[in-house]
Design a protein that fits this description.
141 residues, 7 helices, 48% helix
């Protein structure tokens, strides 16, 4: 019996970025579809989603590439608290501290993708057009 391997989001992104043909990039995104992947892509390319965090990389300590306690598949549920204006009773320092804790808990490449997502930086090799073709209803017009 062949065990289905669950890829980390950065592994999927890296595979797509290395692929040349647009149709192959789209096929890879569809093949590795997950809530975490869609959330990262939508938050990166949907201009209606703005983060309540300062621009630039926050001061954080990267986890080891070989040992990290979490991953984006587990942390994705925390993303909504960083989008939009701060809710009443939420404090900016606490929100930033939670974001830093998330960055420190995931693989360094996922942390890099999260920082880019927050600042709306395009993912090299994964264009908005490719994302829209793979997931047509993900990013509103």
């Amino acid at each position: 019996m062949v065990e289905k391997r669950s890829y980390l989001v950065f592994e999927v992104i890296d595979k797509v970025a290395e692929t040349k043909a647009k149709k192959d990039k789209v096929a890879l995104l569809k093949k590795h579809d997950s809530t975490a992947l869609r959330s990262l892509l939508r938050a990166t390319y949907d201009d209606s989603l703005q983060f309540n965090l300062p621009k630039g990389n926050p001061p954080y300590t990267e986890s080891s590439e070989n040992s990290f306690p979490s991953n984006l598949h587990l942390q994705v549920k925390r993303l909504p608290k960083f989008i939009g204006t701060l809710k009443e009773g939420m404090d900016r320092i606490n929100t930033e501290t939670q974001f830093i804790a998330m960055l420190e808990s995931v693989h360094p490449r996922e942390a890099e993708l999260l920082c880019g997502m927050k600042d709306k930086k395009s993912i090299p090799g994964v264009t908005k057009a490719v994302v829209k073709e793979a997931f047509p209803n993900l990013i509103p017009e």
